[in-house]
Amino acid sequence: CGTPIWLVYQPREVLCPTHGRHQEEIPWARPHSHMTYRAEFQLLSYCQMMTQKAAAMLFHIPASTLSEWLHRLIRCLRQGHKISGLRSIGVDEIAYCRGHKYVTIVYDLERSCVVWVGKGKTRETIDGFFTEVLTQEQREAIVTASCDLGQTYIEAIKRFCPNAVLVLDRFHVVKRLNEAVDEVRKEQWRNASKEDRKFYKGIRWILFRHSSNRSPKDTETLKSLDRSNRRIYRASQLKDEFDQFWEFKDIGEAERHVRKWMTSVRRSRLEPMKNFVKTLENHFDDVLAFIGTPISNAIAEGLNRVIKIVKNRASGFRKVDSFTDMIYLTVGDLDLPAQIPAQ
Prior knowledge:
Layout: E1 13-16, E2 20-23, H1 37-49, H2 52-59, H3 63-78, E3 88-97, E4 101-108, E5 113-119, H4 123-133, H5 136-141, E6 144-147, H6 151-160, E7 165-168, H7 170-190, H8 194-202, H9 204-208, H10 216-228, H11 230-243, H12 251-267, H13 271-282, H14 284-292, H15 298-313, H16 320-331
Parallel strand pairs: 3-6, 6-7
Antiparallel strand pairs: 1-2, 3-4, 4-5
Helix pairs in contact: 1-3, 2-3, 4-6, 7-8, 7-11, 7-13, 10-11, 15-16
């Protein structure tokens, strides 16, 4: 607390003719460490909550020195750590710096934590997780999995997790549908007059909202499209009809609802909506699996928000290893401060 305190201690040493010189183990620090256990605990706790620069100011040491100690400590604590009890996974990617540089992140959806981070978002990256990190028994123990509509993750999960039910993330399916509705709006905006363009631009977020979240004014605005622009109005109606799918409890009723909805879209003249139907057809079973297994990457998206805060706090990371260490520290499956002995 601002008062310098010096502890002077002389550890005993043994000079062995066979093994050489050895120093006795100190109970409050690791062998050959520059920090006590309590300082290590504080270092990890501070860096979970604040920038490394702020933590270095509290420790009264250079930020570069703190960063070196921090990453060495994280890797030391995670050395030999193995994933266990993995039954429900989520897979997603996140950028760690400019230039389209990504890492693939695997989440434990039951424990709400990150279990693995790999550089890149290619098939080789995710294959490396299943083949190098998990054993055959661990892969077979996974019963549910969730990811976006990217074919890379879908194919990897189906190949390496034979017992897992794959459920495409609801958020990404709804996002694709919203993009299709918005493309209909953009087409009408391009062909509209200057006055109508202001109106079409202003209704974008109303179209994205779920029908239960719209205000009476929003509802009246959409109803006015029935007279002024039937194409946008029809697209919004189709979106609301599809949103009912997520509320079904019986998988048979849900399948009949979606197939009837797809037929209605094919009969419309809305090409963006038809393109969405083609995507839905390609992943029909994996979308329908949501009814029997209502999981999603919502937990993963929440963890991604924390990871983005960590990234923004550091103004981005140039090295993927540093970014990986901070992910493990903040939302990893191992509570790193708890690994420090209580001395």
